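Hi R.,

As promised on Friday, here is the backbone we talked about, encoded as structure tokens. Could you run it through your design pipeline when you get a chance and send me back a sequence?
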């Protein structure tokens, strides 16, 4: 006889749990690629352009040519922005690990969904504010020629966060209705 639906789902979640370890192992490589993109982009861009276009490419900042305080600010912002991903991956990994062990509708899962929603709603604003503050400070130090404030807020990320927060309440309500239903029978 074949596996039950529950056993197949748990097997799928166990495989997904192992896949998260591959993601964690790949994260240092991703950080290295992001570092390389930030340190070689302006050189690569300038080499691919000619004449007046190459002068415009000088606007792209190379953090390796900044002053000491500028480098510290830039790499602090770089690390801060990348910290968003391991936090979300960590929350997801814990949830998948719980699912793999058969604990799906537990309070920890609901809290994980809630915190993911909060992070997704708050992060675009925090990211925009810190990026503008660092860019302004780098301009004041003299490491960046032009200060061009960015008002880009990722509305899709915010919508995903609001959806997760609403989903948490829906699941919580479903658990409550299920427990009430079991009590009446």
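Update: got your reply. Pasting your designed sequence below so it's all in one thread:
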């Amino acid at each position: 006889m074949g596996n039950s639906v529950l056993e197949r789902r748990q097997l799928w979640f166990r495989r997904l749990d192992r896949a998260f370890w591959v993601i964690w192992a790949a994260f240092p490589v991703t950080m290295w690629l992001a570092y390389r993109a930030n340190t070689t982009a302006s050189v690569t861009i300038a080499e691919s352009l000619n004449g007046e276009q190459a002068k415009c490419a000088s606007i792209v900042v190379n953090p390796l040519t900044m002053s000491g305080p500028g480098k510290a600010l830039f790499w602090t912002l770089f690390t801060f922005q990348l910290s968003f991903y391991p936090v979300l991956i960590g929350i997801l990994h814990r949830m998948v690990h719980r699912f793999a062990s058969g604990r799906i509708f537990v309070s920890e899962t609901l809290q994980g969904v809630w915190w993911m929603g909060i992070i997704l709603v708050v992060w675009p604003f925090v990211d925009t504010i810190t990026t503008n503050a660092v860019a302004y400070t780098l301009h004041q130090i003299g490491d960046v020629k032009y200060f061009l404030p960015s008002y880009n807020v990722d509305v899709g990320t915010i919508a995903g966060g609001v959806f997760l927060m609403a989903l948490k309440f829906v699941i919580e309500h479903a658990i409550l209705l299920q427990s009430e239903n079991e009590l009446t029978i």
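One thing I noticed while checking it: Residues 9 and 100 are 8 Å apart (CA to CA).

Thanks again,
M.
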